[in-house]
Design a protein that fits this description.
Elements: E1 2-3, E2 10-12, H1 21-32, H2 37-40, H3 52-58
Antiparallel strand pairs: 1-2
């Protein structure tokens, strides 16, 4: 995931592996909507799905962006 350090907005993401199509829609909506990662952290994915990967990635960003 690529995030603008000044605005915290998600700019892009790359996923590789089986069943990544499930991740693409959510990330595409976030990028097109110019959502900051602090907002995305509150979007709880359905469980159990590959979408949880996005939440785990967002948890890795510095507190200043969240």
């Amino acid at each position: 995931m690529v995030v603008d350090a000044n605005t915290g907005v998600l700019l892009g993401a790359t996923f590789v592996g089986p069943d990544v199509v499930e991740l693409l829609h959510a990330v595409t909506v976030a990028i097109v909507g110019k959502l900051p990662v602090r907002v995305l952290c509150h979007a709880v994915p359905a469980y159990p799905t590959a979408s949880e990967v996005c939440l785990r990635l967002l948890e890795q960003f510095p507190e200043t962006l969240l």
